[in-house]
Prior knowledge:
alpha/beta, globular
Amino acid sequence: MLSSRVDGVARNLGYSVGTFADATAALAAVDQDDCRLAFVDLQLPGLDIAAFVQSVRQIKAAEVTIIACGPHVHEQRLRQAQEAGCDRVVTRGQFDRDAQAILQT
Length: 105
């Protein structure tokens, strides 16, 4: 459900979107020249957010903004995303309210 919300808002802003079910596929997409944003669902099974962020930074340094999103009740995952160096960490509620502004920044 989150991916369809991201996809809809991003397309309305004129962005092209790719959705990936695992970190390996997402990292391959990040390596493309036109990738500027990685939006991470913290509920992705098996996600190691610290390793993902480190890999993105190695591929693109600071060229890619990383936004992590998860339910407000998953405080530990949200905190891990912040500690891993995501540029922005938001709850699903925050994203639902401010999706366009979040993706535009």
